[in-house]
From TrEMBL:
It comes from the Bacteria. Residues 201-347 form the MoaB/Mog domain. Its cofactor is Mg(2+). The keyword S-adenosyl-L-methionine does not apply. It comes from Cryobacterium arcticum. This is Molybdopterin molybdenumtransferase. Signal peptide: none annotated. It is an enzyme of class 2 (transferase). One of its GO terms (cellular component) is cytosol. Pathway: Cofactor biosynthesis; molybdopterin biosynthesis. InterPro entries: MoaB/Mog-like_dom_sf, MoaB/Mog_dom, MoeA-like, MoeA_C_domain_IV, MoeA_C_domain_IV_sf, MoeA_linker/N, MoeA_linker/N_sf. It catalyses: adenylyl-molybdopterin + molybdate = Mo-molybdopterin + AMP + H(+). One of its GO terms (molecular function) is molybdopterin molybdotransferase activity. SMART domains: MoCF_biosynth (SM00852).
Length: 430
């Protein structure tokens, strides 16, 4: 059987996950500084499921854009260089103060963000006053002079100039970044409806893997795949339950699935090749997961399908769950995630730019590639705009991946490319 092309397998994975787009659940989050402090991860990579109208105007009152003096513009009509107008200094107004009405012939020291007092209609910056500094707060009498007129509304932020009460604050589908969360908090919104995160069970497999900090016996390695894919899934807007399976026994993997909580998607890493003890293939093949080869390097061995999980620990009724299986070499696993899962999961989470932009630049040096495979090479974009490959094509070279800022695409049919030849690439330095 010939290898499947990348495009075909991408379509197969998209078809497998299509039901998740049709059954997206929503949840309500309480928005407060206390909730953010207690559960900062709860607001990571969130998308609004329902539009939010502003309960108040923002700003809620006319306020000062500058440190200076609140004045009546009519008091300074005659002000000019050589014939300044002196006004009596009124009580100081700080941010958070209510202030009192400004009388004609007076100027009130005012701080940035403080409410414009009734009667005032402009603010003169402190550096344009004489003296160009505030009088001590203990001063009970004093004057300040101005050598130029001021226009009505100067350095005044009108109430509702950002958003008016009842206006659409954020539409459904908005990604909640810092600015969006800030405007929700700034208008006093306390509850928002968001898309529920896709829950993923991540199982890195292999008799040889051990957790960081454990001593390694001969032939054993530290489990990097759980860390790699957990972070990649988090960045794609998922909630992750990582359950490594340091065994090549299918019964151990099936027992782990039985004990795991309810999830929307299962991702496995390792155990999908044609070896004698391939734990994922042995355990999930009989349940309906298909294992095949994709014409890509690294990341050729792949698996996908849907399984009816055994009865779960929480007593949930068995339900079909999609499974996506990646090869076990760390670079193969991460590139497989980039190619097949990342765009779909980001789209499910409502995150912006689910697909990486396909860019183009010339190679810095010549390269060879197997003509029958779509090769993805790690590289960097040099200051001169050329692509420099980092490390070789092998799937164990994780350190070179960590140094890379791009993935270079060498498509099926390309066996050699000369220096200066343009090729496609993805930026991965976000």
């Amino acid at each position: 059987m010939s290898a499947r092309r990348i495009e075909q397998h991408r379509e197969a994975v998209a078809t497998l996950l299509a039901p998740l787009f049709q059954t997206r659940s929503v949840e309500t989050l309480t928005l407060s500084s206390e909730r953010l402090a207690a559960d900062p991860d709860g607001f990571r990579a969130r998308t609004l499921a329902a539009a939010v109208a502003s309960p108040v105007s923002l700003p809620p009152f006319d306020n000062s854009q500058m440190d200076g003096y609140a004045v009546r513009s009519g008091d300074l009509t005659a002000a000019a260089t050589g014939t300044p107008v002196a006004l009596r200094v009124a009580d100081r107004i700080a941010a958070g103060d209510t202030g009192t009405a400004l009388q004609a012939g007076t100027a009130a020291p005012i701080m940035t963000g403080a409410p414009i007092p009734p009667g005032a209609d402009a603010v003169v910056p402190i550096e344009q006053a004489d003296p160009p500094r505030f009088l001590p707060p203990t001063t009970t009498t004093g004057t300040v002079s101005f050598a130029a007129p001021v226009t009505h509304g100067t350095f005044v932020r009108p109430a509702g100039s950002d958003v008016a009460a009842g206006d659409l604050l954020l539409p459904a589908g908005s990604h909640l970044g810092p600015a969006q969360l800030g405007v929700l908090a700034g208008t006093g919104v306390t509850e928002i409806t968001v898309l529920q995160r896709i829950r993923v069970l991540l199982i890195a497999t292999g008799h040889e893997i051990r957790a960081a900090g454990e001593p390694l016996a001969a032939g054993q390695i530290y489990d990097s795949n759980s860390v790699i894919l957990t972070q990649a899934l988090h960045d794609a807007g998922c909630t992750v339950v990582a359950r490594p399976c340091p065994s090549d026994d299918a019964a151990d993997l099936l027992a782990l699935l039985t004990a795991a909580p309810k999830v929307d998607l299962i991702v496995t890493v390792g155990g999908v090749s044609a070896g004698a003890r391939e734990v994922v293939r042995d355990a999930l093949g009989p349940l309906g997961v298909e294992f095949l080869h994709v014409a890509m390097q690294p990341g050729g061995p792949q698996g996908l399908g849907e399984i009816a999980r055994p009865s779960t620990a929480d007593g949930d009724a068995a339900a079909p769950v999609p499974v996506v299986s990646f090869p076990g070499n760390p670079v193969s696993a991460l590139i497989s995630f980039e190619v097949f899962l990342r765009p779909l999961l980001r789209a499910l989470a409502g995150l912006p730019r689910p697909e990486r932009a396909l860019l183009r630049a010339p190679l810095a040096t010549a390269v060879e590639s197997p003509a029958g495979k779509h090769q993805l090479r790690r590289g960097i974009l040099r200051p001169d705009g050329t692509l420099e490959l980092v490390g070789g094509p092998s799937s164990h070279l994780l350190h070179s991946y960590a140094a890379a800022t791009v993935l270079v695409h060498l498509p099926v049919g390309l066996d050699t490319a000369a220096a200066g030849e343009p090729v496609n690439y993805w930026s991965i330095d976000d």
